[in-house]
Write a structure and sequence with these properties.
single chain; 163 residues; alpha+beta; 2 domains; two-stranded antiparallel ribbon; 20% strand
Amino acid sequence: MTIKINVGVNKKIGLPDYGSAGSHCNIEIEADNSILDNADQFLQRVQDAYEVARMSVEEELSHHRPSGNTAQSRAEPQPQRQEYRNDNSRSDNNSGGNRYIASAKQQQFIASLVKGIKGLDWRTLDKYCNSKFGYNTSQISPKQASELIDDLRAAKEGRGTIA
């Protein structure tokens, strides 16, 4: 008897001028039922399938990135044309390149999530953001804010930590 293993990867990237592009890849594998008897073999099959799906998604998204760079690090945000401060006013960025800043609404939601996580303070959150994104909490992009919100929700539900 065979079993079906279904894995999927879904990713969305922000583009200049409020644009975005997304890609997803689902892979279904049929395997002999005996694979369940060997956890290491099963996990390896699943991890291999995820890796192929991740590579496929990254390859597709590379066609949409302005720089075409698929290896761009989270700590190196893509420069964009204008900066939006939390007061929603436009301004120049003295760092030599301008970028979008998370909206006031995103920052407020982050603040409400922080209040709901026991033992989490702003200093710890800023250290976390600096290590993950290369910016303080108040300087992250809208996309980074979305990732942070996901991380905070996971921490609040006990599925992760902010350290």
